[in-house]
Amino acid sequence: MNDSFEILKQKSAHVGLNPEERQSLKSFLNDYIDSHPILESEIEHSPISPFSKFFSKIKYAGAFAGVAVLLASSVAYAAEGSLPGDMLYPVKVGFNEKIQGVFAFTAKSKATHEINLVNRRLIEAESLQDESRLSAGMKATVLDGFSRHMKAVGTHVETMSKKEAFTDVQETTQSLEASLQSHSRILPVLSLTTSSASLPTTTDD
Q: What is the distance, to the nearest Å, from the Cα of residue 100 to the centroid of all Cα atoms in its chain?
């Protein structure tokens, strides 16, 4: 092999090569290539492709988003059991309940959603009383939410009445009355009675 390289050096010293010399050089190069094949594993690849940083950012962004969604879901789930005055209560009423309301499209389904919220406020009042936490401030918080939801029920019942959906009106008012009756023990504590809790009424045009 060293003799071959020496021949190559000597031949390359000439400015021009005659046909015989060119053929000799070509034969040498071909022989060398044949005896030293380039293996796939020996091919150098750039460890960082032009797109690797881009896809890496996407990967980490996706992972971060997944963690954020998981964390938000965990907080929302934990907030469901919170009561007025608890740290997660604003998440319960300001996020969870609003998300639940997004899926109510008709006047009846919206009224049903508000009745569920009326029920939740009364359950919260009962829980606070059981824990001896139903202070004047907590009563005010519960009553504020209770009043807003009752007013919303009345608005949706009026909409149904204007559309002459009287069956829906009847079912909705009965559902609300049943909810109030099931929490009758807490109403006096809140200075309410079933009748004073103003069931939504309809007006005839």
A: 13
In this structure, the answer to whether residues 139 and 99 fall within a common structural domain is no
> 114 and 69 in one domain?
no
Looking up tokens 């508000």 gives 114
In this structure, the number of other CB atoms found within 10 A of the CB of residue 71 comes to 10
Residue 113: name the closest of 125, 128, 124, 103 by CA.
103
Residues 93 and 114 placed together within one structural domain of the fold: no
pLDDT digits (tens, 9 = 90+) for 32-71: 666 666 555 544 555 556 656 666 667 566 665 666 667 6
Q: How far apart are CA 107 and CA 165, in angstroms?
A: 10
pLDDT at 15: 47
Residue type, 188: P
Domain extent at residue 140:
105-200
Q: Which of 36, 8, 13, 10 is nearest to 24 (CA)?
A: 8
First to last CA, the chain: 110
